[in-house]
Amino acid sequence: MLIQLAAAPVLVGLFYIYVRDKYEKEPWRMLLLGLLYGIYATCVIYAVGLGLEKIFPHRENPFYTAFVSSAGVEEVIKYVFLIFLIWKNGNFNEPLDGIVYGVFVSLGFAWIENIIYVTHPVMGGYGTALSRAVLSVPGHGLFGVQMGYYLGLAKFFGGKKQLILALIVPYIAHALYNYFLLEKSPAFWVPFWMLEIWLWWSALRHIKELVQISPFRE
Fold it and tell me: Cα separation of 209 and 217, whole Å?
């Protein structure tokens, strides 16, 4: 049952972004590949995390965990995997595709991470599954929207600035997101919920914007 609960929010996110791709659906093979790239990225992220822990043992330092070993490692590796997946692929033929594949890669990673957390003998359980379904999994999807949005702009409207923003924006958002949660102090709940609201507002706005400028729109 916990495995199904771990998958449920991921499937909801994948279905939502697939439906929003209104004018030129991505082929199932590419979408599956995006999901698999996210799963493969999990293995790389885990290996790099272990290496960093051996070199720089941080003993649960919230700042280091949030800005380096979680957001830093995860967003850089997801960015590299996403670039390899779509940048020179012919299916990347409209700006919104950046968001679609960004979400699929991010939720592929979130899927495996979620299974690990909810089935953990100490930290896992139904409470963990619920909290992660509300916060962590959607969070990864929202970071994927930010990454894909700027990649879409970079691909079709040019400019190195957007390529840089495609990494920097989700990284900063992810790092702050984790830091506010890891501090476990009521003082950080206000900025956390402000960031949460901004992420949702920004993601919905970005999706709407790129849907409206689709070259396949009639």
Answer: 12
